[in-house]
Fold:
Amino acid sequence: MVNRMVNRSARRLDRTLRALAHSTRRSILASVAREASTVGELAAPFGASLPAISRHLRVLERAGLLRRDRHGREHLIHLVAAPLEEVAGWVETYRSFWETRLDRLAELLEKEPAPSRKGAKE
Structure:
């Protein structure tokens, strides 16, 4: 049971990181983080076709990063931040790891005497 939950969480993280790997999708997320937008509004800055932007939106939706509200023929796209929080938590684990390592290095460097500067000109 626990193993299944871990695998599900890992798959969610993989989908999110895969979605974030493309610069166009990151730009789309930045845009909808400022305000909900239509597909056409999201496509405009890229000069990309609506089908191309729709493919990016589907990847982001599968990762759980977007919510689409339909009003007639218009689709309004909203950011869903929860998967980003999961990524931030995963990254935080490694940030803590590296901070601990760098703190240890700083302690070692502070304990060692400064190298002599023989032959240095004044």
